[in-house]
Amino acid sequence: MKILYFAWLRSKIGVPTETVDLPAEVATAGDLVEWLKTRSPRHAEALANSKVVKVAVNQEHVPYDHPISATDEVALFPPVTGG
Amino acid sequence: MAIRVQAGDFDVGAEYAAFTAGRTSVGGVAMFVGLVRDIAGGAAVSAMTLEHYPGMTEKQLETIEEEARRRWPLDDVLVIHRHGRLEPGDRIVMVATASAHRDAAFESCRFLMDWLKTRAPFWKLEATPEGERWVEAKESDDAAAARWAN
Known about the structure:
The complex is a heterodimer of chains A (83) and B (150).
Chain A: E1 2-5, H1 7-13, E2 17-19, H2 29-37, H3 41-46, E3 54-57, E4 60-62, E5 73-77
Chain B: E1 2-6, H1 12-20, E2 28-35, E3 39-40, E4 43-44, E5 47-52, H2 56-71, E6 74-82, E7 84-86, E8 91-99, H3 102-119, E9 122-128, E10 131-134, H4 139-146
Parallel strand pairs in B: 1-6
Antiparallel strand pairs in B: 2-8, 3-4, 5-7, 5-9, 6-8, 9-10
């Protein structure tokens, strides 16, 4: 699965994108955030406060209980601040 | 209908002229233009860099426009949003709505801005004398968008 990071999540984790092999137990957006925390201390620190970690699947905003699959484009980012 | 996400500036007068050209059924146009301020949260801002999520940005803006058209009888909608490095006084965003009557134009223009601020994937990085800082989302923006629920 390809994961994209934006804004301070990108700078804290240190890469704009990464490709990961999802373990079978990762079934939802929320599962993915929890699993990503285990990948490195940088991930753990960046993703510590889930209130400010938003998820998009295939370029649509989704809640944490949204299902994900290996072919999805998943993005993690802070609350948006455009306009 | 037009959604444009671009690094370059835009000319508000030229955009207005193109938006209204040849339209005789439009009774009113509402426009909002957002600018970069030189002060935020008590700190001087010397520049602002807007990051976005190419692809999702356009998709979300199109969805927001569709929602506005579903709610109000609009002749046309224009949304221009810039990304990249901007300085105080620079234009960031422009929304224009055209309708037969002013209420639809005013309300839909505000709706588009309120929804855009909470749904379009842009993030602002401010340069201040203390260094760079990411702008935090405001609860007041969520409240503004929530007014349009349902």
